Input
Amino acid sequence: MKKKHTILIIAGLFLTSLMAQAQDANYDESLVDSYILPDAMTALNGQLITKKKQWEKTRRPQILKLFQDNEYGTMPDAKIKTDYRILEESGEALGGKAIRRQVEITFRGNNQSRKMLVLIYMPKGIKKCPVFVSPNFQGNATTSDDPAVIESQYSTYGRGHQTSRWSFDRIVSSGYAIATFHYYDIYFDQNDKISESIYPLFGINSSTDLLYNTGKAIAAWAWGCSRVLDYLLTLKNIDRKRTIVMGHSRLGKTALWCGAQDRRFAMVISNDSGCSGAALSRRNYGETVSRINKSFPWWFCNRYQSYSQDVASLPIDQHELLALIAPRLLYVASAKEDLWADPLGEFLSLQEASKVYALYGYDTLEGCSFPATDEHLWKGRCGYHIRTGQHDVTDFDWQQYIGFADKYFD
Ligand code: GTR
Output
């Protein structure tokens, strides 16, 4: 067959699958069923949580465990060996504004090793700078046109392919550092890739080794973000009190799960994370739990599958994931045309989660209406915006995240 025809057929199949995806989802607000959310502020024994001490001692650990056992799974906690090697460094990056450092992190366990390549840009002349940790989709060299950026081992995309998602200049000029890595270094985003992932270092080699609550891809990517933070915290010019984990879409789900578990992160950002990220699961709008389990069974622990046909039986909903971030800074962002991610469901979830911030004496988003497009709502310790356009990360999004961090970091 001629190449042109093959491309047309592939494009056609892709469009058909997108249309099928759009067709079997509900986008009509009047067809969203009524639902009752699990109450973040009521402990499993029925006790009402009214003090931050009760939240921290009793309720927060309960919710964290429910997410581990039912949705994202746990990472094994066996110690694995970690080595850092600086592969490249320059004090003249981004037109002389930044220090660029590229670090190879090697993980060892069970006689095997895995390598993760981290690209870091740091502003020059700042003694203690805040830092973003943010995994990338296509490989380090796709995030920048900088010819010195080393290609990630599993990247199949060209240099600079996704630069529009990475406002490095703005980030560094605003006094922030950023560290990114290709998520494939930790877990290939495909079915049946356990053996190539980080898991064999812990003795988990294939799906037969998985318990009902063993983590899979999202748990592994979140673990990867924490390992990058481990490294950053060895650097003198990084401010350990102003660390941020940020992710887009499936990596937004990852950022939330990472921030929920790793309380060293002082701020957590979900960019268009949608179903099983920031959006409420009980709203049947856009992508659903049933749908995501069918399309991406390798993201969540095995038990999550059992909720596909009965989402109301899930002992948690996503507002409780957001509540696990309290009292740290939390930002949820949506995009106007990204209905698949259910922007309203993301906002309602944040609003509900913000109630937990009241235990710490912060304002909540209760009573706030859904903000106008391209206008942010920042209150207490929570931020939200819905931007014009599609499922993506844009310079506008980064501008909001930096503005919010500037305003609220102590
Ligand atoms: C979609 C998926 C979403 C979202 C998105 C992405 O196909 O249904 O949950 O995560 O991918 O990661 O871009």
Summary: Residues 6-20 have pLDDT under 50 and may be disordered. The chain is about 30% helix and 20% strand. The radius of gyration is 21 Å. The pocket of beta-D-galactopyranuronic acid is lined by residues 249-250, 274-275, 287, 292, 295 (CB under 6 Å).
